[in-house]
Design brief:
- By secondary structure, the protein is of the alpha+beta class.
- Helices cover 29% and strands 26% of the residues.
- The chain is globular and about 35 Å long.
């Protein structure tokens, strides 16, 4: 799939998001007006939102919603039972990456938080 901007994806019908959790579609659409955010690609991150090419939110190959946040924030969310460290499958704990546990109600808020974190790192 060709990498496209989230903006272009906004007007695409949900059916274009084949094999995509429908809960992720509103997350993609929330960043449609940000020209620095793209969605898609090939291989790892094919279901990811990127800011200037760097992933900040994605659906993993296992269908988990994953966001990049500060280490302390990830640790707090894990203590609260809202997620776990993202595991790439290579026995490597990703301390700035949270795999969200539970329903999708928090996805958009966490994606916005991850976007702010990514923006701060890019500044």
């Amino acid at each position: 799939m060709k990498k496209t901007t989230a903006r272009r994806r906004k007007n695409a019908p949900a059916s274009r998001h084949v094999n995509l959790d429908p809960s992720f579609v509103p997350v993609i659409e929330a960043f449609a007006s940000d020209r620095r955010v793209t969605y898609g690609g090939q291989g790892f991150g094919s279901r990811a939102l990127r800011l200037d090419g760097k992933i900040f939110a994605m659906l993993s190959s296992k269908g988990q919603f994953v966001v990049k946040l500060p280490r302390d924030r990830v640790a707090d969310l894990i203590r609260l039972g809202q997620g776990q460290y993202f595991d790439t499958g290579r026995d490597r704990v990703m301390k700035e990456w949270l795999a969200v546990i539970g329903d999708s109600a928090s996805w958009l808020g966490l994606a916005r938080e991850a976007h702010r974190f990514a923006m701060a790192k890019r500044a």
